[in-house]
Amino acid sequence: MARDACPFGLCDGSGFIIGDDLTAADCQCRAQRVARARSRSLSAVIPRKYRHVAFERPPISDLPEPIVRQVRGYVRKIDEHLQAGEGLWLFGDVGTGKTSLAMLVSQHAIDAGHSVAIYSLPRLLAEIRDTYEDDAEHSYVQLLDRLASVDLLHIDDVGAERTSPWVLEQLYAIVNARYEEERAVLITTNLERDALAEQITERTVSRLEEMCEILPLFGEDRRRQRFEAPAEIKVQATRA
Ligand SMILES: Nc1ncnc2c1ncn2[C@@H]1O[C@H](COP(=O)(O)OP(=O)(O)OP(=O)(O)O)[C@@H](O)[C@H]1O
Ligand SMILES: [Mg+2]
Ligand SMILES: [Zn+2]
């Protein structure tokens, strides 16, 4: 892997300074390098569908103005919000632009140099489950450590699946670790608060509620198309 030059001009880009006695000491840039490597190994990729979302373009420009204004205000002060551990909870009907808005927030966080991990809840739970396998690539502790330390943890579609008590306990551990460290989470969900609590436990939802500003998005499903056949096809169908 190509090494980035040392931002302090101290080391050779390795993150270590070799002394005259050939012992290695941590360079000032090492903490930064570790954080960056960590977020690279996490899922920090905006899915293709949402890669070009922007405030100026549909669908964002067509979403309810008060909600878009709040999200705009949030990303304008993204550094302060992430520093303070303040996140967003986008909640509402299917196909109303929740994921689009959330990806826009993550994109701004990444552009501002923050480490971001983006998961759908089912994928995150699957990854937790995988760490439980004997031949797991990463241990659960490593995964938890990384998920607890990114600047922003973005979980899409929270409550989309039912899962085992063991996995729910791990999800709680992740949320609680971030809660205690005052690190921000960004979530989207279709479920009402109480239905969500039933799926992912009251304790987890209670913490998320405190950590996030809740933004409701309601309306018709924008993915929806007409399933009604044109009149001439209907006539043919009745004849047959
Ligand atoms: N106000 C809107 N006007 C036009 N298209 C929109 C609008 N809101 C969303 N869309 C489009 O509808 C589709 C669904 O958007 P998105 O994935 O953000 O919804 P969602 O609320 O996350 O849905 P789900 O609850 O199913 O996860 C996308 O193709 C998006 O571009
Ligand atoms: Mg969505
Ligand atoms: Zn250095």
From TrEMBL:
<dbReference type="InterPro" id="IPR027417">
    <property type="entry name" value="P-loop_NTPase"/>
</dbReference>
<dbReference type="InterPro" id="IPR002611">
    <property type="entry name" value="IstB_ATP-bd"/>
</dbReference>
<feature type="domain" description="IstB-like ATP-binding">
    <location>
        <begin position="82"/>
        <end position="225"/>
    </location>
</feature>
<dbReference type="Pfam" id="PF01695">
    <property type="entry name" value="IstB_IS21"/>
</dbReference>
<keyword id="KW-0547">Nucleotide-binding</keyword>
<keyword id="KW-0067">ATP-binding</keyword>
<protein>
    <submittedName>
        <fullName>ATP-binding protein</fullName>
    </submittedName>
</protein>
<dbReference type="GO" id="GO:0005524">
    <property type="term" value="F:ATP binding"/>
</dbReference>
